[in-house]
Amino acid sequence: MPKQGQSVETCVITTWFKHKGDYVKTGDLLCSYETDKASFDLESPAEGTILDIFFNDGDEVPVLTAIAVIGAEGEDIKPFIPGTTHKTTNEAVTTPQIQEPLSSSPAETTTVATPEGKIKISPRARNLALKEKIDITKIKGTGPGGRIIIRDVENILKTRAQEPEPRAAQLLHAEPSYAEYTDKPLSNIRKIIAGAMHASLQNSAQLTHHMSADVRKILEARKKIKEEIQAGKKISDITLNDMICYCVIKALKKFPEVNSHFPGDRIRTFTDVHLGLAVDTPRGLMVPAIRNAGSMSLQVLSGKLKEAAEACRRGSIDPELLKSTAASFTVTNLGAYGVEMFTPVLNLPQVAILGVCTIIHRPADLGNGVMGFIPVIGLSLTYDHRAIDGGPATLFLKEIKEQIETFNLPTLL
Known about the structure:
Dihydrolipoamide Transferase, Chloramphenicol Acetyltransferase, 9 helices
Protein backbone atom coordinates (compact mmCIF):
# COMPACT_ATOMS: atom_id res chain seq x y z
CA MET A 1 0.00 0.00 0.00
CA PRO A 2 1.66 3.25 -1.12
CA LYS A 3 2.19 6.08 1.35
CA GLN A 4 0.47 9.25 0.13
CA GLY A 5 1.76 12.17 2.18
CA GLN A 6 3.42 12.27 5.58
CA SER A 7 0.15 12.42 7.53
CA VAL A 8 -1.49 9.40 5.83
CA GLU A 9 -1.26 6.20 7.88
CA THR A 10 -4.03 4.06 6.36
CA CYS A 11 -5.76 3.75 3.00
CA VAL A 12 -9.02 2.07 1.94
CA ILE A 13 -9.06 -0.25 -1.08
CA THR A 14 -12.11 0.81 -3.07
CA THR A 15 -12.04 -1.52 -6.10
CA TRP A 16 -9.87 -4.39 -7.35
CA PHE A 17 -9.69 -4.46 -11.16
CA LYS A 18 -7.64 -7.68 -11.26
CA HIS A 19 -8.11 -11.04 -9.57
CA LYS A 20 -5.96 -13.83 -8.21
CA GLY A 21 -4.51 -15.79 -11.11
CA ASP A 22 -4.66 -12.91 -13.61
CA TYR A 23 -1.57 -12.19 -15.68
CA VAL A 24 -0.59 -8.50 -15.59
CA LYS A 25 1.98 -6.32 -17.28
CA THR A 26 3.90 -3.42 -15.81
CA GLY A 27 1.59 -0.40 -15.69
CA ASP A 28 -1.67 -2.38 -15.72
CA LEU A 29 -4.27 -0.97 -13.35
CA LEU A 30 -4.49 -3.22 -10.28
CA CYS A 31 -6.86 -1.40 -7.94
CA SER A 32 -8.07 1.97 -6.75
CA TYR A 33 -7.67 3.17 -3.17
CA GLU A 34 -8.33 6.30 -1.20
CA THR A 35 -7.04 8.18 1.80
CA ASP A 36 -9.21 10.32 4.00
CA LYS A 37 -8.87 13.10 1.41
CA ALA A 38 -8.09 11.77 -2.06
CA SER A 39 -8.45 8.80 -4.43
CA PHE A 40 -5.67 7.10 -6.36
CA ASP A 41 -5.07 4.27 -8.85
CA LEU A 42 -2.39 1.65 -8.22
CA GLU A 43 -0.54 0.35 -11.26
CA SER A 44 1.33 -2.93 -11.42
CA PRO A 45 5.04 -2.42 -10.66
CA ALA A 46 6.01 -5.63 -12.46
CA GLU A 47 4.94 -8.23 -15.00
CA GLY A 48 3.72 -11.62 -13.85
CA THR A 49 0.84 -13.55 -12.34
CA ILE A 50 -1.13 -12.30 -9.36
CA LEU A 51 -0.34 -15.14 -6.96
CA ASP A 52 -2.55 -13.85 -4.15
CA ILE A 53 -4.55 -10.84 -2.97
CA PHE A 54 -4.64 -10.26 0.80
CA PHE A 55 -7.36 -7.63 1.11
CA ASN A 56 -10.84 -7.10 -0.31
CA ASP A 57 -12.76 -4.08 -1.55
CA GLY A 58 -13.53 -1.80 1.38
CA ASP A 59 -10.67 -3.01 3.59
CA GLU A 60 -8.64 -0.34 5.36
CA VAL A 61 -4.92 -1.10 5.25
CA PRO A 62 -1.90 0.53 6.92
CA VAL A 63 0.49 2.07 4.40
CA LEU A 64 3.58 0.12 3.31
CA THR A 65 1.75 -3.18 3.90
CA ALA A 66 1.70 -5.93 1.25
CA ILE A 67 -1.76 -6.13 -0.36
CA ALA A 68 -0.93 -8.60 -3.15
CA VAL A 69 1.90 -10.67 -4.65
CA ILE A 70 2.95 -10.72 -8.32
CA GLY A 71 5.41 -13.33 -9.53
CA ALA A 72 5.88 -16.57 -11.44
CA GLU A 73 3.41 -19.39 -10.92
CA GLY A 74 4.56 -21.76 -8.22
CA GLU A 75 6.66 -19.22 -6.34
CA ASP A 76 6.41 -19.22 -2.54
CA ILE A 77 4.26 -16.31 -1.32
CA LYS A 78 4.57 -17.05 2.41
CA PRO A 79 7.21 -14.37 3.05
CA PHE A 80 4.70 -11.73 1.92
CA ILE A 81 1.54 -12.79 3.75
CA PRO A 82 0.65 -10.04 6.27
CA GLY A 83 0.68 -11.05 9.91
CA THR A 84 2.71 -14.26 9.54
CA THR A 85 6.12 -15.31 10.84
CA HIS A 86 7.97 -18.27 9.33
CA LYS A 87 11.38 -19.61 8.43
CA THR A 88 13.02 -19.62 5.03
CA THR A 89 16.13 -21.59 4.16
CA ASN A 90 18.37 -18.74 5.25
CA GLU A 91 16.59 -16.65 7.84
CA ALA A 92 13.38 -15.93 9.63
CA VAL A 93 11.04 -13.59 7.79
CA THR A 94 8.42 -11.62 9.68
CA THR A 95 5.85 -9.65 7.72
CA PRO A 96 4.13 -6.73 9.42
CA GLN A 97 1.01 -7.37 11.45
CA ILE A 98 -1.94 -5.66 9.75
CA GLN A 99 -3.78 -3.37 12.07
CA GLU A 100 -7.28 -2.05 11.72
CA PRO A 101 -7.65 1.69 12.39
CA LEU A 102 -9.59 2.76 15.46
CA SER A 103 -9.44 6.43 14.56
CA SER A 104 -7.17 8.17 12.09
CA SER A 105 -4.14 6.10 13.09
CA PRO A 106 -3.61 2.33 13.16
CA ALA A 107 -4.90 0.59 16.29
CA GLU A 108 -3.38 -2.34 18.13
CA THR A 109 -4.84 -5.83 18.18
CA THR A 110 -6.64 -6.73 21.38
CA THR A 111 -6.24 -10.27 22.73
CA VAL A 112 -9.17 -11.53 24.79
CA ALA A 113 -8.78 -14.56 27.08
CA THR A 114 -11.81 -16.92 27.03
CA PRO A 115 -12.45 -20.49 28.24
CA GLU A 116 -11.94 -21.55 24.63
CA GLY A 117 -8.53 -19.87 24.54
CA LYS A 118 -7.12 -16.50 23.48
CA ILE A 119 -8.96 -14.64 20.74
CA LYS A 120 -7.41 -11.93 18.60
CA ILE A 121 -9.84 -9.11 17.87
CA SER A 122 -9.52 -5.49 16.76
CA PRO A 123 -10.64 -2.78 19.21
CA ARG A 124 -13.41 -1.61 16.88
CA ALA A 125 -14.72 -5.13 16.42
CA ARG A 126 -14.60 -5.79 20.15
CA ASN A 127 -16.46 -2.57 20.99
CA LEU A 128 -19.18 -3.31 18.46
CA ALA A 129 -19.53 -6.91 19.68
CA LEU A 130 -19.92 -5.73 23.28
CA LYS A 131 -22.47 -3.10 22.26
CA GLU A 132 -24.56 -5.61 20.31
CA LYS A 133 -24.06 -8.38 22.91
CA ILE A 134 -22.43 -10.77 20.44
CA ASP A 135 -20.43 -13.72 21.78
CA ILE A 136 -16.99 -13.28 20.24
CA THR A 137 -16.20 -16.97 20.72
CA LYS A 138 -18.82 -17.68 18.06
CA ILE A 139 -17.22 -15.36 15.51
CA LYS A 140 -14.88 -16.71 12.85
CA GLY A 141 -12.16 -14.14 12.20
CA THR A 142 -11.27 -13.38 8.59
CA GLY A 143 -8.43 -10.99 9.33
CA PRO A 144 -4.73 -11.85 9.21
CA GLY A 145 -3.94 -14.81 11.43
CA GLY A 146 -7.64 -15.44 12.11
CA ARG A 147 -8.05 -12.04 13.76
CA ILE A 148 -11.63 -10.82 14.19
CA ILE A 149 -12.13 -7.53 12.40
CA ILE A 150 -15.05 -5.11 12.22
CA ARG A 151 -16.38 -6.69 9.02
CA ASP A 152 -16.85 -10.05 10.79
CA VAL A 153 -19.05 -8.49 13.46
CA GLU A 154 -21.02 -6.49 10.90
CA ASN A 155 -21.71 -9.68 8.90
CA ILE A 156 -23.21 -11.31 12.00
CA LEU A 157 -25.43 -8.27 12.52
CA LYS A 158 -26.59 -8.49 8.90
CA THR A 159 -27.41 -12.18 9.33
CA ARG A 160 -29.25 -11.44 12.55
CA ALA A 161 -31.31 -8.74 10.84
CA GLN A 162 -32.39 -11.18 8.12
CA GLU A 163 -33.55 -13.88 10.55
CA PRO A 164 -37.32 -13.97 11.31
CA GLU A 165 -38.24 -12.76 14.78
CA PRO A 166 -39.83 -15.14 17.29
CA ARG A 167 -43.60 -14.85 17.52
CA ALA A 168 -43.41 -13.18 20.93
CA ALA A 169 -41.03 -10.53 19.62
CA GLN A 170 -43.26 -9.91 16.62
CA LEU A 171 -46.23 -9.29 18.91
CA LEU A 172 -44.09 -7.04 21.12
CA HIS A 173 -43.13 -4.94 18.11
CA ALA A 174 -46.60 -4.90 16.59
CA GLU A 175 -47.38 -1.41 17.86
CA PRO A 176 -45.85 1.55 16.00
CA SER A 177 -42.47 2.60 17.35
CA TYR A 178 -39.67 4.96 16.38
CA ALA A 179 -35.97 5.27 17.06
CA GLU A 180 -35.11 8.07 19.46
CA TYR A 181 -31.81 8.68 17.67
CA THR A 182 -29.26 7.08 15.36
CA ASP A 183 -25.48 6.90 15.73
CA LYS A 184 -23.18 7.36 12.75
CA PRO A 185 -19.45 6.68 13.13
CA LEU A 186 -17.18 9.58 12.20
CA SER A 187 -15.41 9.26 8.88
CA ASN A 188 -11.64 9.67 8.82
CA ILE A 189 -11.88 13.09 7.19
CA ARG A 190 -14.48 14.24 9.76
CA LYS A 191 -12.13 13.22 12.58
CA ILE A 192 -9.27 15.15 11.02
CA ILE A 193 -11.43 18.24 10.47
CA ALA A 194 -12.75 18.05 14.04
CA GLY A 195 -9.25 17.74 15.47
CA ALA A 196 -7.92 20.63 13.38
CA MET A 197 -10.80 22.96 14.31
CA HIS A 198 -10.47 22.17 18.01
CA ALA A 199 -6.71 22.63 17.95
CA SER A 200 -7.08 25.93 16.10
CA LEU A 201 -9.42 27.45 18.68
CA GLN A 202 -7.48 25.99 21.59
CA ASN A 203 -4.02 27.10 20.48
CA SER A 204 -4.50 30.63 19.14
CA ALA A 205 -5.95 34.03 20.04
CA GLN A 206 -8.58 34.47 17.33
CA LEU A 207 -10.45 37.69 16.68
CA THR A 208 -12.79 38.55 13.78
CA HIS A 209 -13.45 41.91 12.12
CA HIS A 210 -16.39 42.47 9.76
CA MET A 211 -16.64 44.95 6.90
CA SER A 212 -18.74 45.41 3.75
CA ALA A 213 -17.61 46.34 0.24
CA ASP A 214 -19.53 47.87 -2.66
CA VAL A 215 -19.58 45.21 -5.39
CA ARG A 216 -21.12 47.16 -8.26
CA LYS A 217 -17.87 47.09 -10.26
CA ILE A 218 -17.25 43.35 -9.95
CA LEU A 219 -20.93 42.65 -10.71
CA GLU A 220 -20.57 44.75 -13.87
CA ALA A 221 -17.40 42.83 -14.74
CA ARG A 222 -19.15 39.50 -14.22
CA LYS A 223 -22.06 40.63 -16.40
CA LYS A 224 -19.65 41.64 -19.16
CA ILE A 225 -17.88 38.27 -19.03
CA LYS A 226 -21.17 36.36 -19.29
CA GLU A 227 -22.29 38.50 -22.24
CA GLU A 228 -19.03 37.89 -24.11
CA ILE A 229 -19.23 34.14 -23.47
CA GLN A 230 -22.83 34.09 -24.74
CA ALA A 231 -21.64 35.99 -27.83
CA GLY A 232 -19.24 33.13 -28.58
CA LYS A 233 -16.01 34.78 -27.52
CA LYS A 234 -13.37 32.43 -26.16
CA ILE A 235 -12.58 34.01 -22.82
CA SER A 236 -12.14 32.64 -19.31
CA ASP A 237 -15.35 32.22 -17.30
CA ILE A 238 -14.07 34.33 -14.41
CA THR A 239 -16.41 34.18 -11.40
CA LEU A 240 -17.08 36.64 -8.61
CA ASN A 241 -15.06 34.45 -6.27
CA ASP A 242 -12.11 34.51 -8.69
CA MET A 243 -12.23 38.32 -8.73
CA ILE A 244 -12.40 38.55 -4.94
CA CYS A 245 -9.47 36.14 -4.56
CA TYR A 246 -7.51 38.31 -7.00
CA CYS A 247 -8.31 41.40 -4.91
CA VAL A 248 -7.22 39.55 -1.75
CA ILE A 249 -3.88 38.69 -3.34
CA LYS A 250 -3.29 42.33 -4.29
CA ALA A 251 -4.09 43.37 -0.71
CA LEU A 252 -1.71 40.73 0.68
CA LYS A 253 1.10 42.18 -1.41
CA LYS A 254 0.53 45.54 0.29
CA PHE A 255 0.29 43.93 3.75
CA PRO A 256 2.82 41.05 3.61
CA GLU A 257 2.70 40.58 7.40
CA VAL A 258 -0.73 38.97 6.93
CA ASN A 259 0.72 36.54 4.38
CA SER A 260 2.46 34.66 7.15
CA HIS A 261 2.65 31.64 9.45
CA PHE A 262 3.04 31.80 13.21
CA PRO A 263 4.84 28.61 14.35
CA GLY A 264 4.90 29.91 17.93
CA ASP A 265 8.34 31.43 18.38
CA ARG A 266 8.63 33.49 15.18
CA ILE A 267 6.61 34.93 12.29
CA ARG A 268 7.37 33.45 8.89
CA THR A 269 6.40 35.87 6.10
CA PHE A 270 6.21 34.51 2.54
CA THR A 271 7.56 36.30 -0.51
CA ASP A 272 4.74 34.98 -2.73
CA VAL A 273 1.09 34.32 -1.97
CA HIS A 274 0.11 30.66 -1.64
CA LEU A 275 -3.65 30.98 -1.56
CA GLY A 276 -5.79 28.40 0.22
CA LEU A 277 -9.38 27.98 -0.98
CA ALA A 278 -11.96 26.22 1.19
CA VAL A 279 -13.88 23.69 -0.93
CA ASP A 280 -17.02 21.87 0.19
CA THR A 281 -17.00 18.25 -1.03
CA PRO A 282 -19.20 15.20 -0.38
CA ARG A 283 -16.39 13.88 1.84
CA GLY A 284 -16.03 17.06 3.88
CA LEU A 285 -14.23 20.39 3.82
CA MET A 286 -10.91 20.55 1.97
CA VAL A 287 -8.55 23.51 1.64
CA PRO A 288 -6.17 23.06 -1.31
CA ALA A 289 -3.35 25.53 -1.80
CA ILE A 290 -2.78 27.42 -5.04
CA ARG A 291 0.97 27.76 -4.92
CA ASN A 292 2.54 31.02 -6.15
CA ALA A 293 -0.88 32.55 -6.78
CA GLY A 294 0.62 35.99 -6.31
CA SER A 295 2.50 35.63 -9.59
CA MET A 296 -0.60 34.71 -11.63
CA SER A 297 -2.80 36.77 -13.90
CA LEU A 298 -6.53 36.82 -13.19
CA GLN A 299 -7.20 34.34 -16.00
CA VAL A 300 -4.55 31.88 -14.80
CA LEU A 301 -5.69 32.21 -11.19
CA SER A 302 -9.29 31.53 -12.22
CA GLY A 303 -8.24 28.34 -13.99
CA LYS A 304 -6.11 27.14 -11.09
CA LEU A 305 -8.90 27.74 -8.56
CA LYS A 306 -11.33 25.71 -10.67
CA GLU A 307 -8.81 22.90 -11.19
CA ALA A 308 -8.10 22.63 -7.46
CA ALA A 309 -11.79 22.63 -6.51
CA GLU A 310 -12.61 19.96 -9.09
CA ALA A 311 -9.67 17.79 -8.00
CA CYS A 312 -10.96 17.95 -4.42
CA ARG A 313 -14.45 16.85 -5.47
CA ARG A 314 -13.03 14.01 -7.57
CA GLY A 315 -10.72 12.98 -4.73
CA SER A 316 -7.60 13.33 -6.89
CA ILE A 317 -6.01 16.35 -5.19
CA ASP A 318 -2.37 16.03 -4.15
CA PRO A 319 -2.42 15.44 -0.35
CA GLU A 320 0.60 17.71 0.05
CA LEU A 321 -1.51 20.65 -1.17
CA LEU A 322 -4.07 20.01 1.58
CA LYS A 323 -1.65 20.55 4.43
CA SER A 324 -2.30 23.74 6.39
CA THR A 325 1.35 24.67 5.86
CA ALA A 326 0.94 24.55 2.06
CA ALA A 327 -1.02 27.83 1.99
CA SER A 328 0.01 31.19 3.42
CA PHE A 329 -3.53 32.65 3.55
CA THR A 330 -7.01 31.13 3.12
CA VAL A 331 -10.29 32.35 1.62
CA THR A 332 -13.59 30.65 2.48
CA ASN A 333 -16.73 31.74 0.64
CA LEU A 334 -20.20 31.04 2.07
CA GLY A 335 -21.94 33.62 -0.09
CA ALA A 336 -23.71 30.97 -2.17
CA TYR A 337 -25.45 29.76 0.99
CA GLY A 338 -26.87 33.18 1.84
CA VAL A 339 -24.66 33.70 4.90
CA GLU A 340 -24.50 37.42 5.75
CA MET A 341 -21.80 37.23 8.46
CA PHE A 342 -19.73 34.47 10.06
CA THR A 343 -16.55 33.77 12.00
CA PRO A 344 -14.12 31.63 9.98
CA VAL A 345 -11.66 29.50 11.97
CA LEU A 346 -7.93 29.88 11.38
CA ASN A 347 -6.11 27.21 9.42
CA LEU A 348 -3.04 27.12 11.69
CA PRO A 349 -0.21 28.03 11.44
CA GLN A 350 -1.63 30.66 9.04
CA VAL A 351 -2.20 33.96 10.83
CA ALA A 352 -5.40 35.01 9.02
CA ILE A 353 -8.37 33.78 7.00
CA LEU A 354 -11.00 35.74 5.05
CA GLY A 355 -14.65 34.75 5.08
CA VAL A 356 -16.65 35.98 2.08
CA CYS A 357 -20.39 36.44 2.68
CA THR A 358 -23.45 36.85 0.49
CA ILE A 359 -24.35 40.03 -1.41
CA ILE A 360 -27.14 42.13 0.08
CA HIS A 361 -28.52 45.59 -0.72
CA ARG A 362 -28.08 48.51 1.66
CA PRO A 363 -29.07 52.19 1.51
CA ALA A 364 -26.31 54.55 0.39
CA ASP A 365 -25.75 58.08 -0.85
CA LEU A 366 -25.62 57.89 -4.65
CA GLY A 367 -24.50 61.51 -4.96
CA ASN A 368 -26.23 64.82 -5.51
CA GLY A 369 -28.45 64.20 -2.52
CA VAL A 370 -29.90 61.03 -4.02
CA MET A 371 -30.32 58.01 -1.76
CA GLY A 372 -30.67 54.46 -3.05
CA PHE A 373 -29.74 50.86 -2.47
CA ILE A 374 -26.42 49.39 -3.57
CA PRO A 375 -25.17 45.78 -3.51
CA VAL A 376 -22.53 45.10 -0.86
CA ILE A 377 -20.66 41.94 0.09
CA GLY A 378 -19.72 41.00 3.64
CA LEU A 379 -16.08 40.36 4.48
CA SER A 380 -15.13 38.61 7.74
CA LEU A 381 -11.43 38.55 8.62
CA THR A 382 -10.29 36.25 11.42
CA TYR A 383 -6.70 36.76 12.54
CA ASP A 384 -4.36 35.49 15.22
CA HIS A 385 -3.94 38.35 17.68
CA ARG A 386 -0.66 36.82 18.84
CA ALA A 387 0.86 37.63 15.44
CA ILE A 388 -1.16 40.65 14.22
CA ASP A 389 -2.51 43.65 16.07
CA GLY A 390 -6.01 44.99 15.48
CA GLY A 391 -4.84 48.11 13.64
CA PRO A 392 -2.90 46.37 10.85
CA ALA A 393 -5.63 43.74 10.54
CA THR A 394 -8.27 46.45 10.04
CA LEU A 395 -6.13 48.27 7.47
CA PHE A 396 -5.64 45.01 5.57
CA LEU A 397 -9.38 44.35 5.53
CA LYS A 398 -9.99 47.91 4.35
CA GLU A 399 -7.47 47.35 1.53
CA ILE A 400 -9.45 44.30 0.35
CA LYS A 401 -12.57 46.47 0.39
CA GLU A 402 -10.87 49.15 -1.72
CA GLN A 403 -9.51 46.59 -4.20
CA ILE A 404 -13.04 45.24 -4.70
CA GLU A 405 -14.60 48.68 -5.02
CA THR A 406 -12.02 49.87 -7.57
CA PHE A 407 -11.91 46.61 -9.55
CA ASN A 408 -11.35 47.22 -13.28
CA LEU A 409 -11.77 44.21 -15.54
CA PRO A 410 -10.54 45.66 -18.88
CA THR A 411 -7.09 46.43 -17.50
CA LEU A 412 -6.84 42.87 -16.16
CA LEU A 413 -7.89 41.08 -19.35
